[in-house]
Amino acid sequence: MSQARKMPHGRVILSCALSGILLSGCLPPKTQSIKADTAKVSRSTATTASTTPAKDEDSERQDAAQQIQSLMQMVEARFAEAEEINLAFYSPQNFQRAAIEIKLLQDLYKEYDPKATGFLGFGGAKSAEADLNEQASKTLGLIDKALQNQALVETHLEKLMVDKVYLDPLKKYRFKGEYDAITNDINTLIRNMERNEKFEGLEAERDRIGKKLFLHEVHITKAAILDGEGLLKSLKQIRSERVPKSYKQAKGDLRALEAFIEQTPRDSEGIETRRLRASQSIRRAASIQKEVDWVRQQPVTQTEQIVLRYHDSLSELATARQVDEFVELPFSERIQALQQALATRQTEQELELSQNLDADKQALLDEKKRQAVTAALNEA
Asked: 183: phi > 0 → left, psi -120 to 50 → alpha, else beta; which?
């Protein structure tokens, strides 16, 4: 600092302002405007210093005060940009130190008096300006280091950041502890990157956190599909000893849905296809269980009534569809015969409809021809 005091005050201020700008490094897009403004301030100051003839002491003091004011505006703008792009997340230690340094800088500026003369050559405006420049350089240097760590994070942790942003609105209370633990792991990894100023040696930790994020997404998706849709609850209401075949089918389809989610939790189309299949199997098993329970409740003497119940249902269907009932066949064969009869009946109806449409089209064409002939005869 003693060497800085020996330099002319204008050069001291200009030197510090330029050093702060050169230290700024690569900035995010929102910060580029601040960097450009800073360069303009520096060029303007340099031009003034090289072209303006010697001034009296009051003019020099006014110029020095103006340069200090411009420097303060630039540093505060840089810090505001750092807050806006959330450097506190990307580089918490450097940002925290920058916040402390800019507070000290602002305190120095409050005490700054461009007309102060000092005492016996010590203190005074020139000494304060040197201190302000030094403090500004510290603040800008820390902001630049924070920006460098942000670049490291965005380069090496891009997928982690994308997955975290995707999962943040999906987190549920039951998984809050899991999500918070992952967030803490990410913050620790970022602090390690900041401390090392590089990413080498941290790949394994990044991959471990990535796996935890993936499992967290699987847990959330399974909870939403299996619990939210009530599939697990519905399956638990089916008694495997009463309908073992139906239960096995329903459980297998539900397990297939779970396995698919565990592999591709974001494939919404594939998940929905398997969800519908599992839901149908569970509802079918539940329906069969009701029938089995009803049959088991009937006394042996009511065996005929049980058989009649199903045969009568087929008779009602055959009557409604206007097909033969095939009452002479056993129950299973009767169902197959009805299915064939219904398919034949549907084919006949479709053919009849097609023929009617063809007849209507032909009638329309004949009518148009008749009208054309009539019009031609009238003209003749």
From this structure: alpha
Segment 215-225 shows an average pLDDT of 91
Instruction: Supply φ then ψ for residue 119, to 5 degrees.
Output: -140, 120
Beta carbons of 213 and 118 less than 8 angstroms apart: no
- Which has the higher per-residue pLDDT, 364 or 6? 364
Q: Is there a contact between 131 and 108 (Cβ–Cβ < 8 Å)?
A: yes
Structure tokens at 346: 């549907």
Tokens of 128: 């304060």
Q: Does residue 35 have a pLDDT over 70? A: no
- Is 26 within 8 Å of 143 (Cβ atoms)? no
pLDDT at 356: 81
What is the helix (H) or strand (E) element at residue 167, kind and residue range? Answer: helix 158-167
Beta bridge partners of 228: none
Bridge partners (DSSP) of residue 323 are none
**Centroid of chain to Cα 331:** 56
Place of tokens 């269907």: 317
Residue type, 349: Q
By C-alpha distance, which of 211, 271, 277, 281 is closest to 243?
A: 281
From CA 162, how far away is CA 363, in angstroms rounded?
Answer: 65
Using one digit for the tens of pLDDT, what is the confidence trace for 336-348?
A: 777 787 788 778 7
3-state secondary structure of 64: helix
Beta bridge partners of 122: 119
Query: Does the pLDDT at position 215 exceed 80?
Result: yes
At CA 19, angle to CA 14 and CA 25, rounded to 5?
140
Say how many CA atoms lie within 13 Å of 371 toward its Cβ: 6
Residues 6+ apart with CB under 8 A from 61: 114, 115, 125
3-class DSSP assignment, residue 119: strand
Phi, psi of 122 (to 5 degrees): -105, 150
> Over the Cα atoms of the chain, what is R_g?
42
Q: Quick one: what percent of the chain has pLDDT higher than 70?
A: 79
